[in-house]
Write a structure and sequence with these properties.
It contains 6 helices and 8 strands. By secondary structure, it is an alpha/beta fold. The strands form 2 sheets. Strands 4-3-5-8-7-6 form a 6-stranded mixed beta sheet, with helices on both faces. The protein has a two-stranded antiparallel sheet with strand order 1-2.
Length: 195
């Protein structure tokens, strides 16, 4: 796997944080476990690209760094069910990785196997991510959005986001992921510690 440089800066806050609202449920802060600076592993699923020619992966990395997060590593795997599963398993097991973001393989061609490979690994699904991604994408691609199967879930206490392989879609998905990744990563760890 290729290593990307790490950058550290302050993570931007949610709009509700800016207004001082922290969703205090039953006497505890729902955001107390949030991770301020998240370290993300980026996985490109493609049989035709390289890490040197990977605009979607670059867009994801730039979005995370712009939001004050870090990129722990970038990896490339072919459109193969077993290879994708093995790569996700390896990345969520890294101690320097809080979230994993994949790009590619989310369409409906026979080669698009990312969703079939990753979804069985989820201990918890996060359907709101895909719903929000498709809602925000509708203005750009219209009804063709039904062919986009972007998803997210938790694998081994690690949030995993599966984005399409186009640069624009990867950028949009990353904008959503960077807004919530610190909150999701903190909650996933908290859930693991309580069980």
């Amino acid at each position: 796997m290729e290593e990307e440089r790490n950058t550290t800066s302050e993570h931007g806050s949610h709009d509700d944080h800016a207004n001082g609202a922290h969703h205090d449920h039953a006497g505890h802060d729902h955001h107390a476990s949030d991770i301020e600076t998240v370290s993300a592993a980026i996985l490109t699923v493609s049989s035709s690209r390289s890490l040197e020619e990977d605009p979607a992966g670059e867009a994801i990395g730039e979005a995370f760094e712009r939001a004050g997060h870090e990129v722990s590593t970038r990896a490339l795997v072919t459109d193969d069910h077993g290879d994708v599963q093995a790569a996700i398993d390896e990345l969520v097991g890294r101690e320097d990785t809080d979230v994993v973001v994949s790009t590619g393989g989310t369409g409906i061609t026979p080669n698009d196997v990312t969703i079939e490979a990753v979804s069985p690994l989820f201990t918890k699904e996060l359907p709101g991510f895909g719903e929000l991604f498709r809602r925000r994408s509708y203005g750009e691609v219209g009804a063709r959005i039904v062919a986009t199967r972007a998803i997210a879930g938790v694998v081994s206490e690690t949030p995993v986001f599966c984005l399409p392989g186009s640069e624009n879609a990867a950028r949009l998905g990353s904008e959503i992921a960077t807004e919530v990744c610190g909150h999701l990563a903190g909650l996933a760890r908290q859930d693991a510690e309580q069980h």
